[in-house]
Amino acid sequence: MTMAAWLRSLPSLTGVAPEPDAAPLPDTPEPLFERWIRGAVEAGVAEAHGATLSTVDARGIPDARVLILKDLDPGGWAFAGPRDSAKAEQLAAQPVAALTFWWPSVVRSVRARGRVVEASAEESAADLAARSAAARDGIAPGGWVLWRLVPDQVEFWQGSPDRRHRRTIYRRVGDGWRVSGPEAESERR
Q1: Among candidates 67, 69, 65, 44, which has minimal Cα distance to 55?
Q2: Phi, psi (deg, nearest 5) at residue 116
Q3: What is the pLDDT of residues 38-77, one digit of tens each?
Q4: Fewer CB atoms inside 10 A, N or C side of the chain?
């Protein structure tokens, strides 16, 4: 069997999607994300706060790694890492990124993309202090950074076995958000 045939033979979207949420969509994406991530944890998704952070280096080459979401509020989606990491270099050169959450057992994904800002030195120090002693070992003062992704767009994707996946998209407009969806992919064409 060829690699392509083998890959095509693998099952996909095997999770069980929750019933559609009857609650009205909030005006901002943060409350909906909180509902979805709490629902994922309640459904048994392991490490639901894990996400893929995609960045771009100084030459425009994309890069990605998995990390843990540290916080979420109207000021941004927080994540952290060493100041001397490739991630830090890339964010210094191109302060934009995307965060992607994938919860296969509930067939849901959330993507947030936008600019990245560095938190204050005090916030970064507090995040470092909250880590275990082993995780702090070897990190010099000022060597840890907390960043916030300030999204321009947040997409909530609900998979469906019939491939009529539904998307709800929040787009930043001025100081607020414009919401579209949920709509099935076939309705978007």
Answers
A1: 65
A2: -120, 135
A3: 999 999 999 999 999 999 998 999 999 999 999 999 899 9
A4: C
